[in-house]
């Protein structure tokens, strides 16, 4: 049973993973890279839980404060020593994740602890092989916003033990009440391998002047019943993350449809990262 959860990174995804774990009654430690980032992470958690409380979404008659009391935001990875499961949710950068998995392998003490990554596109094997326990390393890939979206992709590498995958399934489906699909360890797994080339095609269409951002998005919302259009979705994901995922997919498959369009690269260079910076394809 997973009872003590660790999360590394308290950004968009890490805060969401910490929140759903604490709302399911688990004890959570989240580690950020600096005091400033930890403080931003705490604010993110407080705001999201306040929204959930206002909508009456917190279970068991609990308040946002009850849930927050189960989450500790720290700045030292040493705080993860007693965790049963650690989910890494730092930037989508292979070198940074490799360094982190080497450290987690040294720090997390329980011999059967699961070391998971929320990566969208980096092969799980690259993270497993830098540890002494690749049989306990796998992808547990949540979707944004984590408190709202039901899906989690379970991604064992070739070296992941079947018992690790089954414990992760029981955590995701039994404890968190989410729904899992099983994926092979290929860049993008199931959803991003299909979704990212679609978003990139929308960016190319906009970049070519073929249609406005609003009309592209309205087209998919009204004509294909998507809840939001691809450019609004890219802004929600974060254009830096969208670019990083495209690059991992391109690196893996060498298909032009995965190549980041020049406009996406220029927007990231400019710091126009979407909702999180207030401007992307739209202004927020
Ligand atoms: P983000 O930029 O919002 O958050 C990343 C956080 O990690 C930042 O708060 C940063 O301070 C922290 N961080 C960076 N290096 C660290 C380190 N060494 N130790 C501790 N904290 C560190 O990014 P986001 O969107 O939360 O993405 C995180 C991961 O989740 C990435 O691997 C991404 O591909 C994946 N993901 C993102 C989704 C999205 O829609 N944004 C959806 C599903 C997965």
From TrEMBL:
InterPro entries: 3-OHacyl-CoA_DH, 3-OHacyl-CoA_DH_NAD-bd, 3HC_DH_C, 6-PGluconate_DH-like_C_sf, 6PGD_dom2, NAD(P)-bd_dom_sf. Keywords: Oxidoreductase. The record marks 141 as: Important for catalytic activity. Residues 188-284 form the 3-hydroxyacyl-CoA dehydrogenase C-terminal domain. It comes from the Bacteria. One of its GO terms (biological process) is fatty acid beta-oxidation. It holds the Pfam family 3HCDH_N. CoA binds at residues 48, 55, 120. Pathway: Lipid metabolism; butanoate metabolism. Residues 5-185 form the 3-hydroxyacyl-CoA dehydrogenase NAD binding domain. One of its GO terms (molecular function) is NAD+ binding. PANTHER family: 3-HYDROXYACYL-COA DEHYDROGENASE FAMILY PROTEIN (PTHR48075), 3-HYDROXYBUTYRYL-COA DEHYDROGENASE (PTHR48075:SF9). NCBIfam families: PRK07819.1. Belongs to the 3-hydroxyacyl-CoA dehydrogenase family. This is 3-hydroxybutyryl-CoA dehydrogenase. It comes from Nocardioides lianchengensis.
